[in-house]
Amino acid sequence: MSEAVAQRPRKVKADLPERLSWQSNRRRLVTVYLPLLCFVFVLLFPFYWMTVTTFKPNAELYNYAENNPFWVRSPTLANINKLLFETSYPSWLWNTMLVAVCSTVLSLVASVLAAYAIQRLRFRGSTYVGLAIYIAYLVPPSILFIPLATMVFQLGLFDSPLALILTYPTFLIPFCTWLLIGYFKSIPYELEECALMDGASRLQILWRITLPLAVPGLISAGIFSFTLSWNEFIYALAFISSSENKTVPVAILTELVQGDVYQWGALMAGSLLGSLPVAIFYSFFVDYYVSSLTGAVKE
Amino acid sequence: MSVSTERHVTWRRPEVAPSLLARLFDSKPFLIAICLLPAVGLLLVFLTYPLGLGIWLAFTDTHVGRGGYFVGFENFESLWYDRVFWGAVFYTVFYTGVATVLKFGLGLWLALLLNENLPFKSLLRAIILLPWIVPTVLSAIAFWWMYDAQFSIISYVLVDVLGWRETYIDFLGTPWHARWSLIAANVWRGIPFVAISLLAGLQTISPSLYEAALLDGASSWQRFTRITAPLLMPILAVVLTFSVLFTFTDFQLVYAITRGGPINSTHLMATLAFQRGIPGGQLGEGAAIAVSMIPFLILATMFSYFALARRKWQQGGDDE
């Protein structure tokens, strides 16, 4: 109670001093900062552990009695070296990048057009089309991969990146379209009417007026699609069989795990290097990512 | 076209006659069709058709490399007497139930914490979302290493640092340990999504409501149950629907850490379908397992959506 009383005015009048009284401050420490610290610790620890393991030599890795496992005494690049030069990791990385970029671009183009048609060209039944696309997002890949595998095989796409580039949009398009419909809604329609008066064609309007205004929405959708396709696993596992065509998540699990003795150093190095590109990419656009996540949920 | 040019013959504008292509692109029905074609086409070919094909496959005895014949309910009949399948159904429901409760409990708590007046708010939010960004399989491998029977860091802390236990925990060796370990990893990955989505919901609640409640002498618990919870309900319903759906059909985490073992105790329906269908080659049976997820999914979606939506409507009606 006292905590709440002390806190509330602070939120309203930001110019008040931060610490109102010794007691509320201490209480806040226990009720807010301490649990928050625990959360952050638990959420980040696996990444820390991943990083530490990557740089550990094997002697330290399997000997906790003489080494403090939480720290690296003699860091080594041997694991990363092994990963980059003794496995086809670079080509896995390239495949993942290729598939993620192509499927993102493909879904963005398709979603922009679809969202524009549904939100701006308003035709009879447009809301139903929107709803149908939204429902498509609720169909999980786990129930589609077996029939898709037979289709991919019949189309002769088995073991080619094209199979992934064509199937990833099934979960990217619904999401992006839904996000962009929301975004287009926020752009005043009057702008388009003006352009229409001035004799612009519909496509010119889309290209010159709506899209430039929707750039933040496009970035959000793009980032979300990119991370989703980078993470995708089940299709990549089912449709790709040869080692050099695999994507990073699949390759690490199927190519690096051999026999009963796991090369934990190399595995962790692979996980770290596979996570870094997407984490860096994400860190540049955090706000867009968060807005797309929350925007899509709020719709 | 020619008519219009002739009518304007006295005063001629340079580009008065648009080309046929431009006119085509200005006709609304054509434009709608063109715009919808890529998205709808892709979804019909790679989503709707496979969904139907999957249901059809479930009623055939298709194997890899060999087309199947219609066999009626034979696949489902054999699944009915299959203890591994029922084990997978049980674990899928258990996994979804427990993980969802934990994710929402902890996620809501984290969201409430983040909603306090904190320094470095956006940095904190970015850090917290990391587990959600990083490819699930890669973080699952990190968990696998943390669950290692001999070199688990968790066991090390419990045994050698804190001295709470005598022996190292065999996280993935016994069925129940493995089940709980997988749930923990799933919760770890799901908390950020729940927390950040609910935080967005919390931020839409007007502070003046809390001020009014405070003036009326409401305790912090009363403020939570009477203001926060009901106003959060609509967004909670959507997040819950998604969370339940994706947890129920989870594949990556289990496949990466245990592949269904030990002794098939941690198979989810998705991993079992994969194991029977792709490496096992029995596409028909795999499809039957995948198809039997559909009723659960519809049920779960309906329940979480309608149950919560109705409550929102009732409470909203009471309040306003």
Give an account of the 3D structure.
The complex is a heterodimer of chains A (299) and B (320). By secondary structure, chain A is mainly alpha-helical. Chain A has 2 domains: 2-78, no CATH class; 87-298, MetI-like (MetI-like fold, Orthogonal Bundle). Helices cover 74% and strands 0% of the residues of chain A. Chain A contains 16 helices and no strands. The longest helix of chain A is centred in the first third of the chain and has 33 residues, at 22-54. Chain A starts with a helix and ends with a helix. By secondary structure, chain B is mainly α. Chain B has a single domain (83-319), classed as MetI-like fold. Chain B has 16 helices and no strands. In chain B, α14 packs antiparallel against α15. Residues 312-320 of chain B have low confidence and may be disordered. Chains A and B meet through α1, α2, α5, α6 and α7 of A and α2, α3, α5, α6 and α7 of B. Chain A: It holds the Pfam family BPD_transp_1.
Uncertain stretches of 5 or more adjacent residues of chain B: 312-320
CATH topology of chain B, by name, is MetI-like fold
Number of domains of chain A: 2
Based on Cα principal axes, name the global outline of chain A: globular
Query: What is the class of chain B in the CATH system?
Result: Mainly Alpha
CATH class of the largest domain in chain A: Mainly Alpha
CATH fourth-tier homologous superfamily of chain B? MetI-like
Give the CA-CA distance, first to last residue of chain B.
59 Å
| The CATH homologous superfamily of the largest domain in chain A | MetI-like
* Shape annotation of chain B: globular
Instruction: For the record, give the distance between the C-alpha atoms at the N and C termini of chain A, rounded to a whole number.
Output: 35 Å
Subcellular location (chain B): Cell membrane
Transmembrane segments (chain B): 30-59, 88-114, 126-147, 190-210, 231-249, 287-308
Protein name (chain B): Sugar ABC transporter permease
InterPro entries (chain B): MetI-like, MetI-like_sf
